[in-house]
Amino acid sequence: MSVHRGPVSGQRRAIALATTDWVRPGGTPPGRELPLVLRPSHDDVDLAAWAGTHGGRVRSWLHRYGALLFRDFHVAQEDFGEVVRALAGEPLAYVERSSPRTEIGDHIYTATDHPADQPIALHNENSYQREFPATLAFCCAVAAESGGATPVADTRRILARLDPGVVRDFARVGVRYVRNYGEGVGLPWPEVFQTDNRDEVAAYCQERGIDLEWKPDGGLRTSHVRPALAEHPVTGERVWFNHAIFFHVTSLLPEVRDAVLRQFAEEDLPSNTYYGDGRPIEPDVLDHLRDAYRSELVALPWEPGDVMVVDNLLSAHGREPFTGARRVLVGMAGTVRWDDVRVTGETP
């Protein structure tokens, strides 16, 4: 097998993978621990072929840095599924959805179809679910004219920045997620649960400890609690891992938040979060959490053909607003269950 995909004198050049180091680490942005930027040491290196024989090295880097940016490999949209399989594993279906996405085939999706002028806060994919992906892979097919980066942040460092009292409170009770689905309220429940059968939705929720209530107008309200901290299944490191900020109503843009609060009673908001015991999260705690995320945020502009691989527990991710055309794809792989990573014992 070759990792070189360009013709040389009319023939494909075959190089022994074991004896040639085709990918070189270029370090991380100044003063930051992630992402590790990796570039090919030769022209036209086939990233999928290289990753297929260097999985151990990829995992080692990923568990150390949390996010890897493969640059100058010129990965095309039609090749991205193969790259995801080589770098992360078989792509997963997107279930219990919270963001509009378009599937382009084989469980490869647009990263989000959220409006271009609205930022997407840092979060860890599907941390509100019973199971969530271990790894995410993003590919830039078209870079935005301005903005549009996929920022990342080290969740180990976020946790280290948090006040121990805040951490203990969340570790003790977790995060309660309340969502409403209906006409004009977030995503409709058939899209979220990928079925229009109420019995199937009820069975899905019951199996996962999600309380549900069918509303008189045909809408749906769900409420459930998940932990706020996790222990990485490989490294054993503790991480801040939740959607407490992401789904809180105060995280909406001010003009959107004001309109939503005028239109809906608190219990009918499209989404909101609380302490796991139902208490409101105090404004100063919300500000403290946002400061921790903001302090660790790293945003590198996309270049066409870039691929970024993210360990979902070690790195949060988001999206900057942008102008112009932008097309970033995502594949999610590996399944982790909360039962296997929840924090036990004393929390500092």
From TrEMBL:
Residue span(s) of domain TauD/TfdA-like: 43-332
GO molecular function: dioxygenase activity
Domain of life assignment: Bacteria
Gene3D superfamilies assigned to the protein according to its UniProt record, in alphabetical order: Clavaminate synthase-like
The protein's required cofactors: Fe(2+)
Keyword ATP-binding: no
A GO BP entry: antibiotic biosynthetic process
Keywords recorded for this protein, A-Z: Antibiotic biosynthesis, Dioxygenase, Iron, Oxidoreductase
Pfam families documented for this protein: TauD
Protein name: Taurine dioxygenase, alpha-ketoglutarate-dependent
Primary gene name: tlmR3
